[in-house]
Write a structure and sequence with these properties.
The chain is α+β, with helices and mostly antiparallel strands. Helix content is 17%, strand content 33%. The chain is built from six helices and 18 strands.
Amino acid sequence: MQKPRTVEQPAELLSYLFSAWPDVKKKQVRTWLKFKAVTVNGSVVTQFNHPLKPGDVVGIRSDRYAVPGDVVGDDIQILFEDATILVIDKPPDLLTMASEAEQEKTAYFQLTEYRRGNDIRARERLWIVHRLDRETSGLMVFAKTAAAKGILQTRWEEAEKVYQAVVEGSMPDDKGTFRSWLDETNPFKVFSVPQKPNMRHAVTHYRVLKRGKGRTLVQLTLETGRRHQIRVHLSEAGFPIVGDKKYDAKTNPVKRLALHAWRLRLPHPVTNEVEQFESPLPAELVRLV
C-alpha cells in the first residue's frame, strides 16, 4: 500500500492530492473524495477545499478503493478502482478464472478475496468481463456489479484492445492486417480454416515497433476478439510468439509467453466517458529485442 503524505505547506485538499499523487488520474482522485477514501490526520474528509496546514497527514483508505499501484494476491497490480469497475495488470502464469485443476490461483478468486477483505462471510462479488490466456500478462477489467458487467460486455466491440508481442524472426512489413476464419472447436488449439458455417472471422492489425536479435517487437490491435487469435495469426504468418511452444515457437529464453495486453480503452459503464489504461511492456520482454 502507498504511504500517507505529510503536508509541508498550506494548501487546499484537492490541489494537494493532485500534487502528492501526480501519477493518479484527476478523476480517480475525485472518486477518492466522493467515496470517503481520503483521510486527514486519520479522519475522513470529502470537502475538496478543506484547508491543510504543515504537519497534517493525508492518507488514502485502502478499505475503500485501492490506490493505483497497490498489489494483491499473486502480484496482481490494481491500476484503477471505483464503484463499478476494477482494472488490473495481470502477471503471467495466472488463470483468469478457475479450471478443474486450479481453483484458487486465479485472478478472479484472489480479487474476490481482496474485495471481501479476506472475510469469508462478506458478500461482495466481482464479475468477469473478458479473459486473458494464463500465459499472457497485462490489462484486464472486472465489473463490480452485474449491471456494469452487462454494459461492458454489450459494448465490448467498442473497446480498443492493443497488445504487444515479441516474435521469432524479422517481420518484413512495417504494418499490415491478418484475416482468417478460426476453428475453435478444439479446446486446446485453434486453427485457421476455409470459411464455412460455425467458423469465426478474426481480424488482427499489426505494426512493427522494433527489430533486433533475430526477433521483432510488434504491436497488435484486435478488431475481433477470438480465442488465441493473436497467437494463431502470428504463428501461421511464420512469426510465432517467443515462448509459445503450442503455436510452434522454437525458443523460450525468459520462460514465459512474450505477449502482453498493453492498452485498454473503453467507455465507462456508468459515466459513458472513455477511459484509457496502459501497462508498460515488462522489462524481460523489452530485453528480448
